[in-house]
Amino acid sequence: MSNITVSLPQNSYEIAISSGSLSQLGAKMKQLKLGEKVLVVSNPEVFGYYGDTCLQSLEEVGFEIYQHLIPAGEVHKHLQSIEKIYDTALANHLERSSTLVALGGGVIGDMTGFAAATWLRGVNFVQVPTSLLAMVDASVGGKTGVNHPQGKNLIGAFYQPKLVSIDPDVLQTLPEREFRAGMAEVIKYGVIWDAELFSELEQAEHIDSFESIEPELLNTILARSCQAKADVVSQDEKEAGLRAILNYGHTIGHAIESLTDYQEYVHGEAVALGMIAAGEIAIQMGSWKEAAANRQNKLIAKAGLPTTVSAKVKVKDVLEAIKSDKKVKSGKVHFILPKKIGAVKITDKVSSDVVKESVLQLIGNS
């Protein structure tokens, strides 16, 4: 069991990691005094596995419970889905003291958080992540939002949860592909912040499935990844500077996702490709050694993640897509580039030719 505090000037909260904790969610929320009405937002598949346990834990301590299901997948992460959450909130008379609970992966967490941030100008919000990616990344830090047709996560708000409750046991039903996608974000933390975590992943025999990974290593992955994100967010809640390093691999990764209509790559797979491209950019710019890039790329492959991109992704389209990235400032795209395992830098000095070459490498090796 691990308890990690995200320390903020206002609205600090706890990340509670404990096996079997889903059945104790209601009791944990009751301690936080989060009002009487709770709306649980999930997708049908996750709810089918864990909805009853979640609802029962809330019911046992006296919460008035409602539910709202959204079809699974990034393609449903849009404003129309948020409107439907509002409709359910309105129909059941949710008040400012009420709570929205996100039971699901990163997509459900992002949408539920955005709905909580904007319904009645802000209601309570609790994250109960059920995917590895959501546990180590999406559920922590208060980034919420939806996609715009022209780009990923362009509509959103910073809105911190009251609690992040992580039950590692729910990962046993997570599809293997989604587990691997979560490992991309774990590897990211190793590159940007935690060289020791990176080394532990290198030394592990297997990291590509829940069944093959050692329980002790899984606990380490969850705790160290959440601690890394908590450390960064505590220093820079709203991405004024340092927090941007958490976007390592995301600039080109988001472009690949959107250019393939969120159908060909899940988020973690796209991030893995983006990290490989960022590593190539860093090599070309002389800030990273090829040996370190090879270590990163080998670990990505070890996690069962893609290392080449579909030929249907065109370089010119990637260059155009990154112009709409959230990290564009004064017309310049800001890239997060590695300096060594465990440290990165933020720069807007990357030429389009260098980006082009890095994407060509991704396509050319396929």
UniProtKB/TrEMBL annotation:
**Reactions performed catalytically:** 7-phospho-2-dehydro-3-deoxy-D-arabino-heptonate = 3-dehydroquinate + phosphate
A single GO BP? aromatic amino acid family biosynthetic process
Q: Could you tell me what the cofactor note in this record states?
A: Binds 1 divalent metal cation per subunit. Can use either Co(2+) or Zn(2+).
User: What's the name of the protein?
Assistant: 3-dehydroquinate synthase
Q: Which InterPro entries match?
A: Dehydroquinate_synthase, DHQ_synth_AroB, DHQ_synth_fam, DHQS/DOIS_N, DHQS_C
* Annotated compartments: Cytoplasm
Q: Boundaries of each 3-dehydroquinate synthase N-terminal domain copy?
A: 69-180
Q: Which residues form the 3-dehydroquinate synthase C-terminal domain?
A: 182-328
Q: In which pathway does it act?
A: Metabolic intermediate biosynthesis; chorismate biosynthesis; chorismate from D-erythrose 4-phosphate and phosphoenolpyruvate: step 2/7
- Cofactor requirements of the protein: NAD(+); Co(2+); Zn(2+)
Q: Where does Zn(2+) bind?
A: E185, H250, H267
Organism expressing this protein natively: Hyella patelloides LEGE 07179
This molecule's function is given as: Catalyzes the conversion of 3-deoxy-D-arabino-heptulosonate 7-phosphate (DAHP) to dehydroquinate (DHQ).
Q: Spell out where the chain crosses the membrane.
A: none
Positions annotated to bind NAD(+): G106, V107, I108, G109, D110, T130, S131, K143, K152
E.C. no? 4.2.3.4
A molecular function annotated in GO for this UniProt entry is: metal ion binding
* Record key words, sorted: Amino-acid biosynthesis, Aromatic amino acid biosynthesis, Cobalt, Cytoplasm, Lyase, Metal-binding, NAD, Nucleotide-binding, Zinc
Q: Which family does it belong to?
A: Belongs to the sugar phosphate cyclases superfamily. Dehydroquinate synthase family.
- Top-level taxonomic group: Bacteria
Give the HAMAP family listed for this entry: DHQ_synthase
What are the record's GO terms for cellular component?
cytoplasm
